Amino acid sequence: MRIQVKRTGGFAGIERRAEVDTSGRPDAPEWRALAEEATAGSSGSPPPGVPDGFAYEVTVDGRTVHWADPRLTPAQRELVGRVLKEGV
Amino acid sequence: MYHSFSVIMVAEGDSVTADCHIAAMESMTHSTGTPVFCTIVPPHVLDKLARAEDPALYRPARRTLERDALQRTRRRITTVRGCAARTAGEAADTPERTICDAERQEQLPGRVVRSEGQEPTDDATVNRAYTGLGATFELFLKEFGRKSIDGAGLPLDATVHYGEDYGNAFWDGERMVFGDGDGEIFLDFTLPVDVIGHELTHGVTQYTANLEYFGQSGALNESVSDVFGSLIKQYALNQTADRADWLIGAGLLAPRVTGEALRSMKAPGTAYDDDVLGKDPQPATMDDYVHTGSDNGGVHINSGIPNHAFYLAATELGGHAWEKAGQIWYDVLTGGELAADSDFEAFARLTVGAARDRFGTGAEEQALLKAWSRVGLTASDDG
């Protein structure tokens, strides 16, 4: 499973991208469960954001969904947090 | 890497179709018989094309990027009006501040840790937020006669310690929210008072011109927040225009980052140049306007242009920047003529009119015409 995160906006307006390829990783099932929980019910069109808030574009195996601060579910926060931290 | 694709339909006669030269665009016929163009171009290709030297390549690509972003993100970001406002009769001359602590969770509002009139806490972040809200309230009240962000004494709420290593601050329509930064790139977002002022000014804009947070109106929304954010710092330090640093976010970057701030109104594009952060992308003039679909059409990038115009006008006029240039900007923001979807030129023209209304024909009007001209905008309103 390939998980890509693009974060735009924010006070600084600086874009960040990172991705994680879970194939061959021992924690792949954990990533899959998290990605499925995070993206369940998410829409392909961006939700309304707030001034200076981050906007997230998350692509899981080719399917792209959009989220915006501060309205992320705990699973969504964990997913973008982990990808931006551990991804390349 | 970026692998999603954008698909947009563009009607005949639209500017995108007029000079469409992108090979991936193909002509189609709509069921109504109206010719349309369907573009299926990966955004990263558009991004690259948009940076091409050849106008035949960059023009349609830039327009497509902007249109694509506009359609995807037509957001009603700043639409919360009138919430929690006290009635006019109650409007106070003192702020009513409440600081909450999110305790490193991303849950709002968090636990109340300091209310109006209470003594400082042991937490410097809480105290900085409290003091910064007070400084912002004071500038708007004493210099512009505005009671709080809605003009009717709206309580000022802020949440600090939002999230874990969270490198951002934002206005959520009702409160200011500040992260602690990761310590590697960003420090605590309450450190620069202009950042606090910037967020609060988003509230003022929401209750007044309500500038749409996209494209040029979005860049104006951002610029107005930078302008008043900087003025709040200058006011707190009692600085004249020639003594101010005209920086946004000075002291926010971690020591290892090569840069002095996030934005420079004096010299947009020079605030930082770092291995990790990259280079400050802000333009100072319309010649370098950045066409992009990211960041709501580059609202934090192209704000450099009106920011620089304000700096030029304020330094030309001299003295305290809030007294003349700041007053003119405030008059435009609150005067009722600034449309929510205004572009830079509309704003520029209104500043010239506002300068004449308040100061008559003279140095102020001339300083503004000159400042806007130097950033590549025509501000003459033929009045």
Molecular structure report:
The complex is a heterodimer of chains A (88) and B (383). Chain A is α+β, with helices and mostly antiparallel strands and 88 residues long. Chain A has one domain. Helix content of chain A is 28%, strand content 31%. Chain A contains 2 helices and 4 strands. Chain A has a 4-stranded antiparallel sheet, with helices on one face. In chain A, helix 1 crosses helix 2 (74-86). The model of chain A has no long low-confidence stretch (mean pLDDT 94). Chain B has 383 residues and is α+β, with helices and mostly antiparallel strands. Chain B has 3 domains: 6-73, no CATH class; 88-207, Roll (Elastase, domain 1), CATH 3.10.170; 215-374, Orthogonal Bundle (Neutral Protease, domain 2), CATH 1.10.390.10. Helix content of chain B is 38%, strand content 13%. The termini of chain B are far apart. Mean pLDDT of chain B is 83; it is low at 1-46, 71-76 and 78-89. The chains are: A alpha+beta (88), B alpha+beta (383). The A-B interface holds A 4, 6, 8-15, 17, 19, 45-46, 48-55, 57, 59, 62, 64, 66, 69-70, 72, 77, 81 and B 1-4, 72-73, 75-78, 106, 108, 164, 167-173, 177, 186, 189, 195, 198-199, 202, 206, 213, 221-222, 225, 249, 262, 277-278, 281, 294-296, 298-301. Chain A: Residues 14-27 have a biased composition (Basic and acidic residues).
